[in-house]
Design brief:
This protein is of the alpha/beta class. It has 25 helices and 16 strands. The strands form four sheets. The protein has a six-stranded parallel sheet. A six-stranded parallel sheet has the order 13-12-11-14-15-16, with helices on both faces. The longest helix is centred in the N-terminal third of the chain and has 35 residues, at 78-112. The protein has three domains: 78-238, Substrate Binding Domain Of Dnak, Chain:A, Domain 2 (Up-down Bundle); 250-399, Rossmann fold, CATH 3.40.50.2030; 414-624, Rossmann fold (3-Layer(aba) Sandwich). The structure holds iron/sulfur cluster (SF4), FE(3)-NI(1)-S(4) cluster and fe (ii) ion. Residues 51-54, 56-59, 72-74, 76, 81, 202 line the site of iron/sulfur cluster. It is an enzyme of class 1 (oxidoreductase). Its EC number is 1.2.7.4. It comes from Desulfotignum phosphitoxidans DSM 13687.
């Protein structure tokens, strides 16, 4: 079926195009329609020039000197307002990732105490490695005893008042010294987030540079702290990912099965849903209802988590969540936290789909709340799956429309798995970088955003990078976009430049390595730190670059900030709300180089964005003399 110009402009993904056509047929509204109704978006907001921090406001600064106020009622200038708004976004993002990490620490604590319902410590090698980092005794101790000490140690990172966050010491010495010198070495995770909220209260910190430095400090507490804890403790509890085959896109939903989508972020819930779906009684019950079985699939980062640990298929990325419901084939959309559209409530009411919220932190209009807790995890997971199974009888088969599209992919390249694929040491990778077979390493991450054609920014940028012999690592919704485009298969090395192709063929790996969910960007940092340490240089000396071609969330703002703070040049594909302050824009795109040895660039054209990254890598190679 040929699609309207409108649909073709919304997404490059064929399954998404089909579902947008279906949504039109059924007269159902999606995020794209709501975006169109929102236009024109507020110009003050777009520039970051609106302040509602106190009740004398809202205040807005005119971008043109002669046409309106240049100061808020308290006297705050555009620079102050933009800087405050920006770092409040960092606080939101860092809080989200770090709370995710905290939940994992909590689950490990309960598991070590024997109080959790169904979890166990799966990766003892990782447990011991982390214990060593914290100088926890491992000799002759049970995994539960070690786990208890580790849980208490990582838990303590959140409320720490002085000192430093342990995992940040994985960074090269030079990097840590630089953070200390700039005053941005975080003392504790929660402390830095709280300090942002304090400093941005009316009448506290009114120096844009000082504000931004606190933003960077907090973001480091996220990337090297909260996110790293989320990643590492997930590995301890659920296993460190290893390469596994999986499938992506809406075609993973099945006509004859009970379809359950696990959407959100934390593996604590989704791991149990996956396990519960194998329960023989529930499978039997599904069959008694006329279904062929139970089909659990993931969405957004939950999708990444269960896919890389179990090969569970991923239904789609952020902008596909509504479309999944519109297939009419979903018995339950189970959610925990983050990136879940409240629009799902009304939409699910147009179908038989049960929208099930599970976290005490995240309730939604139109959702049934089945609260999850770690103590009774398995029991509750079975109850949730049971609800989905019962709902199969309510599916209206005449209303089902599942696009056939699926793509195979290979996922699960943890840092450990990469080293393993390299034969046990980083040397083959270092040699390939030195010889120029691999020009550099890119981390391409982040969301979807209705402001940019869905998946196009992701796919085009990544294709251009691999064509130019850049090895790409990816997480989050970028990973899902790129997997849908078929780039996460060893065969995709045919699309890579000659050097990268040779390396991929020799190792049997794809040119784009799936490293996990958004918190797993900490894995990318770990790899960069290991490469820098092996070469005896700082991360900022390496031919590496980051990109977030379609970013939208506050988490992405925190991510971009810690990636730059770690010394990695980063290209943003959607324009951040900071252009109202030439000073803040200048700090982010130029001055940051003098402080942390890296900066941001904004480039909405993905090919040009890739070009900036490649030019950066060439310059770094030259400086290294390779
Ligand atoms: Fe206006 Fe200042 Fe209050 Fe912001 S803090 S709303 S700029 S008076
Ligand atoms: Ni991470 Fe962005 Fe996806 Fe949400 S799941 S939409 S923050 S990239
Ligand atoms: Fe995510």
């Amino acid at each position: 079926m040929p699609y309207s110009e409108k649909i073709l402009n919304r997404s490059v993904d064929p399954a998404t195009q089909k579902m947008l056509g279906r949504a039109e047929e059924l007269d159902l509204e999606t995020a794209w329609d709501r975006y169109e109704k929102m236009l024109p978006q507020c110009g003050f907001g777009e520039l970051g020039l609106c302040c509602r921090i106190c009740n004398m406001g809202p205040c807005r600064i005119s971008p043109f000197e002669d046409t309106g106020p240049q100061k808020g009622i308290c006297g705050a200038t555009a620079d102050i307002i933009v800087a405050r708004n920006l770092i409040r976004m960092i606080a939101g993002g860092a809080a989200a990732h770090s709370d995710h990490g905290r939940d994992l620490a909590h689950t490990l604590l309960l598991t070590a105490q024997g109080k959790s319902g169904g979890y166990e410590i799966k990766d003892e090698i990782k447990l011991s490695a982390l214990a060593r980092e914290y100088r926890i005794e491992t000799q002759g101790r049970s995994k539960e005893d070690i786990g208890l000490d580790l849980a208490e140690s990582v838990y303590a990172e959140f409320g720490k008042q002085e000192g430093f966050v342990q995992f940040s010491r994985r960074a090269p010495k030079k990097r840590v010294e630089l953070w200390k010198k700039a005053g941005i070495d975080p003392r504790g995770i929660d402390r830095e987030i709280v300090e942002i909220m304090h400093r941005t209260h009316i009448g506290v910190d009114n120096d844009p540079v000082n504000l931004i430095l606190q933003g960077l400090k907090t973001s480091i507490a996220d990337g090297w702290g909260g996110s790293a804890i989320a990643t590492e403790i997930s590995d301890v509890l659920f296993g460190t990912p290893e390469p596994v085959r999986s499938m992506v896109n809406l075609g993973v939903l099945k006509h004859e099965h009970v379809n359950i989508i696990a959407h959100g972020h934390e593996p604590v819930l989704s791991e149990m849903i996956v396990a519960a779906a194998h329960d023989p009684k529930l499978v039997e019950q599904a069959k008694a209802c006329g279904a062929a079985g139970i089909n659990v699939v993931g969405m957004c980062c939950t999708g990444n988590e269960i896919s890389m640990r179990h090969g569970i298929p991923i239904a789609g990325n952020f902008l596909q969540q509504e479309l999944a419901v519109i297939t009419g084939a979903v018995e339950a959309m189970i959610v925990d936290v983050q990136c879940i559209m409240p629009a799902l409530g009304d939409l699910c009411e147009c179908f038989h789909t049960k929208f099930i919220s599970t976290s005490p932190k995240a309730k939604f209009p139109g959702a049934i709340h089945m609260e999850f807790n770690e103590e009774h995890a398995m029991e509750i997971a079975k109850e949730i799956v049971g609800t989905a199974v019962e709902n199969y009888a309510n599916r209206n088969k005449g209303k089902v429309f599942i696009p056939e599209d699926t793509t195979d992919c290979m996922v699960g390249f943890s840092a450990e798995a990469i080293v393993k694929a390299l034969g046990g040491t980083l040397d083959p990778l270092l040699d390939a970088i030195k010889s120029g077979a691999i020009k550099g390493i890119a981390g391409v991450v982040g969301c979807n955003n209705v402001k940019i054609k869905h998946d196009e920014g992701h796919v085009e940028l990544v294709k251009e990078l691999i064509r130019n012999n850049v090895l790409v690592t990816t997480t989050g919704c970028n990973a899902i976009a790129v997997a849908k485009a078929g780039l996460m298969l060893p065969e995709a090395s045919a699309q890579a430049g000659e050097g990268l192709r040779g390396v991929c063929q020799a190792l049997g790996i794809p040119p784009v390595l799936h490293m996990g969910s958004c918190v797993d960007i900490s894995r990318i940092l770990t790899v960069c730190a290991a490469v820098a340490n092996a070469l005896g240089v700082d991360i900022s000396d390496l031919p590496v670059a980051g990109a977030a071609p379609e970013w939208m969330s506050e988490k992405a703002v925190s991510i971009g900030s810690y990636v730059v703070s770690s010394g990695i040049f980063t290209v943003l594909g959607t324009v951040p709300q900071v252009l109202g302050s030439p000073l803040v824009t200048q700090i982010l795109t130029k001055t940051a180089n003098d402080v942390v040895g890296a900066a941001f660039a904004v480039e909405t054209d993905p090919i040009k964005g890739a070009g900036l990254m490649i030019a950066h890598m060439d310059a770094k190679r030259k400086a290294l003399g390779i």
